Amino acid sequence: MSEAWKLLGEPRFGGVLIVSDHASNHVPDDIDLGVAPALLDEHIAIDLGVAAVGTLMARRPGFAAFQAGISRLVCDLNRDEHAPAAVPIASDGHAIPGNDLDHAGREARLARFHRPYHAALAELLDRVPPALILSLHSFTPRLASHPEMQRPWQVGVLYNADDRGARLALPLLEAEGLIVGDQEPYSGQLLNYTMNRHAEAEGRPYLGIEIRQDEIADAAGQAAWAERLARIANAVALGMGD
Hints:
The structure is a single chain. The chain is of the alpha/beta class. It is built from five helices and nine strands, in the order ββαβββαββαβαβα. A seven-stranded mixed beta sheet has the order 1-3-2-6-9-7-8, with helices on both faces. Strands 4-5 form a two-stranded antiparallel ribbon. A hairpin with a 2-residue loop joins strand 4 and strand 5. The longest helix has 25 residues.
């Protein structure tokens, strides 16, 4: 464990590892982002609901959850460290003045959070290879900066070049009676850094899932999605092993 990440459950060889880069809204006491505290409870700071869903899933045999320990406003772990958004100076129309850092300050932020997170994830995947990595995120029904853009999908499936898991998961999710987005609300070919690095580059099976936040805003929704994703992740893992 570290301030950059935590591991829930017991990882198993051939199991399912849930990875959530934006599971926390924690800001360390020695970092001042210069934003209103209320913003830390909004989507720009955290993927709302995913920590609870991952925690519930990690209580099941064969599942474990690797979750970020800090807010994406402190350091966005799902961005290449060379990308400006890795330490964002703005998000969905909100300035983050505390991230207007010089080179040394930015380097220190990356060394403290980004690199330990990805080093720990790489070590875990090498030590206990899962049958499937489940990349779990959530998305807001509407962006404040683009209120005209509706996001009707209850869940989206994202991927880059490797669509093996996606092709298995899409019909399973649709069979649940859900409105399912294929590369919605955005494309995994654009925003897929963690899975590009740890899954696609290594040939590891993975499934990228985005749940609309109002679906997992309360305990009942979180429990329902934990049960659903556990079933589907197991089915995808078995299908990819055929």
